[in-house]
Design goal:
Elements (H helix, E strand, L loop, with lengths): L4 H14 L23 E6 L7 H14 L5 E6 L1 H4 L6 H18 L7 E4 L5 H10 L4 H5 L2 H6 L8 H15 L5 E4 L4 H18 L7 E4 L32 H9 L17 H14 L3 H8 L4 H27 L2 H30 L3
Parallel strand pairs: 1-2, 2-3, 4-5
Helix pairs in contact: 4-13, 5-8, 5-14, 8-9, 10-13, 11-12, 11-13
Length: 365
Amino acid sequence: MALPLRTNLKRFFCFIQKFKPPKRCFCAAVCPENKKPPGSARVFSGIQPTGVPHLGNYLGALENWVALQNQYPSVLYSIVDLHSITRPQDPDQLRNNILDMAASLLACGIDPQKVILFQQSQVPEHAELCWILGCLTSMPRLRHLPQWKMKTKLKNEGSVGLYTYPVLQAADILLYKSTHVPVGEDQVQHLELAQDLARIFNNSYGELFPEPRALLSSTRKVKSLRNPSTKMSKSDPQTVATITMTDSPDDIALKIRRAVTDFTSEVTFDPETRPGVSNLVMIHAAMAKISVEEALLQARGMDTGAYKGLVSEAVIQRLTPIREEIQRLRADRVHLEGLLAQGKHRARELAAPVLAEAQQRVGFC
């Protein structure tokens, strides 16, 4: 016998409500309703082993990493060497770069007693979960992500690893049931993929992964000293365009002295019309730990040439102790390898049960 219309409608709306997507909000930093109780929060982030970081890495990510280790009860930082081989790498150089990055993170203030610091490839659960999540990801979804479009813009080709790079990023995050991920604005779309995959897996196999939220940094991107329309990069062909964490005071002063500005001598902050000078003001403010307004007050009465000397002093003062500590740590490879080995064991203690549960849900065991 047919059910009454009211009953059918009621069942229909209950069905729709069951599969209604949750309210989306990606930035925990600005949305209090998405903040979890401190005891259940977990931060995950990774950095590729490109050797010693540059000033943009420090201000854009590492300085924030140091702050987060004191704000959250569970924090994992990974040297993501699996991601680095999406482009050809010299094996010996890669080994050195991994240790250089470990030394740099420690010198910047990362405390292995407060965080789990580990090498990604030494935790095989990352790659295993990546395969499961990859089977839940459509090719069009990956094709429109910025990593693929940016890296293949000049030539219409790229490796399968580069194509599926964002799925491995999602696995990195979800493997530890991370709740918060510090990201730049250019990485938000990749985090959205991790959120989508958490939801797809949970809807298909039962609740397992929380949807991670973005912790957006308030720091502006550091621009190239020679071309302020692009961000500072280690791959910049002009070596004077990038300040690395191990540059000597003389090198830092030279690079800032040769930084591109414009024909106006007054120091002002206007990123749209005066990107070169504004980049120096931002660097000065960030390294001196003052506001942009305070930096401009200190620059009052100076022309851009004299102001570059003030910027150099601020950068040298902050980077000198970091440079000296990197050099000290680099000389003790056994110590660095031991710390990464400890981090690997601690990371696997968290990762193994989550992967086992995911495998059981999928039907592998």
